[in-house]
Amino acid sequence: MLTIFALFLALLSALASADNPALSPFAADWRDNPAGPANMSFLLDAPAGRDGPITVRDGHMVTPDGSRFRIWGVNVTGSACFPTKEDAPAVADHLARYAVNCVRFHFLDSNWSASLFVRGADNTRTLNAAQLDRFDFFVAELKKRGIYTNINLNVGRNYRQADGVIDYDKMGLAKVLNYFDDRIQSLHREYAQQLLTHRNPYMQSEYRNEPAVCIVELVNENSLVEAWFSDRLLGAHTGRPAGTWQDITPHYAELLTKKYNAWLKENLSDADLRQLHELTNTKPGDLIPRLTYKQFAKAPEKQFHAEAAFYMHCEDAYFQMMYRHLKDDLKVNALIVANSDHNHYRSGYALLSSMSKLDVVDGHVYWQHPNEIIDPQTGKRTFRMPNTPMVKDPFNSTVVQLSRSAVAGKPYTVSETNHPFPHQYACEGIPILAAYAAFHDWDGLFFYTFEHADPADWLKRTPGHFDVRPDPVKMTNLAACAPLFLRADVKPANETLARSYAPHQIIESLRASSSLRPYFTPGFNSALALTYGMRINSFTRPTGPLPEMEQSSPVVCDTAQLAWHHPPQSKGLVTVDTERSQALIGFVKDNPRTLANLSAKVENDFCSIVLTSLDANPIAQSKKLLLAATARAQTTDMKYNEDKTSLESWGKPPMQIEPVTGHVTLINIAAAQSVSITPLDPTGRPAAKPAAATKKASSYEMPLGAQPTTWYLIEIDR
């Protein structure tokens, strides 16, 4: 009986393991940055800006000698922008180890965290000298290691009583007010001058002249047009701040209506103005009311287009005013970004038409961003997210969503993207985006966010939705995919499809059905964005016909280096097959594929396997390769709800991984005497002795998973 009972327990354990493989602790100390085999800092060119500032040539960012400059970046947010002078060098070393070559400083102006503004003061017009000194020192340490800086000017500023802003205590982040309120525009110019003319004593330069500052962003996810179609211009808000995306107050609604009517008088003929009064049942001399989103569908074309054109004018005028202030008045060397195309449930072309007049176009996208809610049963704040794999949904993928924003003749960056925690398929995110970003010939990726907190708290913190640093799967892929993108291992598309939009199309797209997302271009097949390069050529004329395509599986890009296998023919797999980087991403077990030099047989239901050359030679001739083999990552004792769309418990440190088990095989490796594989620990050091690969004819088979890890060093003796 005991034997049968023991077998029964063993069977239950095996079944449980198949459904939920065992997890192993795998957390790195960020202060420990060895010069080991997984240290990717050799990809950086130090110091940043050594030969002069980053500029634009032929629609791409370049260094002073004309070489392409691609950003492999991260955000640092809030308190993470201000490490102590003791911590800053180690943070910079840690970022360099993962080949991060640019840091986007986000929420420098926050109200909820450490900030450049003096805490407790009655205004936001005085910079905190101690915080500014920390920021200066950190930027200087980054520069030493070849890491550039991106400065965000307006993200989280909460105005205070002495700022002279009406309803300062009601408006929270005061989004959209900058487009039509003179006082807030004046404060934006003042802050830009204070920060960008500040002299960093550790670099002996002002930020406006500092070549290691490659980008300055004006505003973050802040669009008047978006506020219009999101019903945040109603003027119904009268209480305390109500979150990031809140309505404006009655004062600002009235101000906006008056400015709208003044603009109509300046820009419409008397006949058109009379017709607009007739359409809105108002008398000449009365204010023409503004539309709510519910009125969009039935609004007469003349009325709808007039109001949309006004909001577009406000955005364009603000961007041009700030650009001229930075470039003409302050003489800022850095490239200027206006905003980001960030709302893919609606058309972004109205915003893009004005953004694209500045130096760089930018986009944001998250795969299944968590939806913050209040649990109706417990009353507690929680979240919901679909938690489904992107490889199963290629035509709504981050790649397709982001690809709509690139504009011909302008560099294109993605300053925020992530598979937010606790997404169980997050291992797919960085490899897929790195490969397709190279294919589309984009200029930069910034993953959001490296950290929110002060480094002193990093090791004891449970990660939030967006913290990349604690996640061993994301950090491993950050290192392993850096060569793929920075070296452009994936060739740019052979053909780039150009789209154009006439002003009438741009405005009508604002009330188009959301079923047309993310491109909002009738007849556009999303498979095109996985097959060809994509750029917008013009915002002044209609587009010509685009090629017809079937959404069959696989979708193969026109260089044949990327293929997206998707349902119903496949459970979902992306393959990357280049000379120097190769990858199998998704349901690898159920989709056996052989690449030029790599195949894998794994036991995990879902994983990502990325192989890249460390000596810049093709994999077939390389002597050192980095293999990233990643699956799930989660905190200790983390517990999903029943359908894995939320958490019952966030768990605690340390982070754990689901090791990838099985084996990989190297194929077509030239003149190898022997091949060995070494598992690496969380810091990238060898975690065990090298194991010899098993030679089989012209291939070499290597086991995975004997030692819990996310990455391996493969050495080839030639």
Molecular structure report:
The protein has 718 residues and is an alpha+beta fold. It folds into 3 domains: 399 residues, Glycosidases (TIM Barrel, Alpha-Beta Barrel), CATH 3.20.20.80; 43 residues, no CATH class; 163 residues, no CATH class. It is built from 13 helices and 34 strands. The strands form 9 sheets. The chain has a 9-stranded antiparallel beta sheet with strand order 18-19-20-21-23-24-34-30-31. An 8-stranded parallel beta sheet has the order 10-9-6-5-4-15-14-11. Strands 22-29-33-32 form a 4-stranded antiparallel beta sheet, with no helix packed on it. A hairpin with a 6-residue loop joins strand 12 and strand 13. Helix 2 packs parallel to helix 3, helix 8 packs parallel to helix 9 and helix 11 packs parallel to helix 12. It starts with a helix and ends with a strand.
Roughly how much helix do the residues carry, as a percent range?
10-25%
Large-scale geometry: globular
Characterize the biggest β-sheet.
Answer: 9 strands, antiparallel
Count up the helices.
Answer: 13
| Count of individual domains | 3
In CATH terms, what is the architecture of the largest domain? Alpha-Beta Barrel
Overall CATH class of the largest domain: Alpha Beta
| Largest sheet: spatial strand order | 18-19-20-21-23-24-34-30-31
Look at the structure and give the mean pLDDT. Answer: 95
Number of strands: 34
**Rg, please?**
26 Å
Strand fraction: 15-25%
Unreliable parts: 1-19
